[in-house]
Amino acid sequence: MITQELIAHINQQLAQGATSEAIRESLLQAGWPTSDIDEAFKSLDSQTSTLSSPKKSSNTLLISISALLIFCLIGGGAFAYFTFLTPNPTEIFKKSLQTSLNTTSFSFAATSTADAEIQIDNEIVPPLSNVSIASNSNGSIDFRSLDAPLFDVAFGTLTNFNTATSSGLISMRLNERYLNKNLYINLKNFNVSYTSTDPRAAGMQVFIGLANGFMASLENKWIRIDIDKTIHSVNSSHQIFLTQEDMTMIRNYVLSMSYVTSMSNGGRETVNNVPTYHLKVTTQHGQELINLIRKIILEKQTIVPKDMDAFNKNMEVLSRNISQKINWDIWVGRNDSLIYRITSSSLVIPIVMNGAQIGTVTGNLEVNLSNYNRPISVTVPQSALPLEQILQNLFTSMFGSKAISASGITIPNVSVGANNIQGLLFPRAQNVIPSINYTEAPLHAGDYGHRAHTRS
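Now predict its structure.
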């Protein structure tokens, strides 16, 4: 028969480190029956099991509480990171606009591709239906002075066009510099190839041959265009540069962000070794932008009364097409809120001529930006030929000096506006080239590809 003294003895021995076998042996030598020893050990095992159960439950509860706390810490930390530590994309974009509008200079590298469907059908130009354009440009722009900006830009483009009866290729590379209100152009390469079975194309092919020959004579030569003189030859009150008032209106429109329809944060990425936020932005401009464009142009008196009807028609067509939604990917510097890359694969641009839409351009664009707010150096090219001299050489070679004298045309004073040159070369084709002089719009890097396209 087991007693409490026996159980207490076994417990004491176990606590002192004795093994069960050693305790059994000592109890047998002391005269305890084997059955009592076995029963005492069983009693101890039962007590240990009963006492250990609450401890096991306590351990399980502790583990569960710890896991819950860890989960809450991780989840809460992630929530706090994305909610409080990662700025709202709208705030990122707004700050980037504010910062960009305060920059004074930058460098850029841009590439673009575009496809267009164009319908031109008249006595000079046969129908053009499909046009593909690939262009690239790079350079630096400084606009500390709004009426005397500086830029140094290299540009290249390759244009393919074809119809059921004709096909062609236009390739061009040039450099442009602007300083002291003079535009300098250096033509590196220009060539047009054109074949057609359309009887009307004979005159075009002759003209292209003459143009290729003339442009070849200008390759690697700098041409100087006196912007003030050119503008005043059209209208003494004419100006092409944005005024401070214009910039204020543009700034207010840009910062209003009324054209932004959606925005999301695409994550953190490194662009050209700069840590950035990647934003996905969708824009859709409306009548507000049309009114702004109209106001700026009309206040500069760039539209003479006889061209006002065509101008209004152009604005109407633009208004109908400007509601197109455009998706942008924009990378904004995390440390300085400057924009370092802009891409879009959904550009849609209407082509308007004399108040009628003659086609649509769809394209892709990528612009990389760098070197913000650093002074740029633009040097005056040596031995630059005045545009007036180039025109005089052109007309003399085409018509002869006697014909020029008999016509009463004074070449040095000829305006270089598109219509003026067109009227001299093609008196019957006054509607081929748009009525707005190509010198009437501010020069921006993004315009070059479109100009090459619309003049092709």
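The chain has two domains: 4-83, 89-454.
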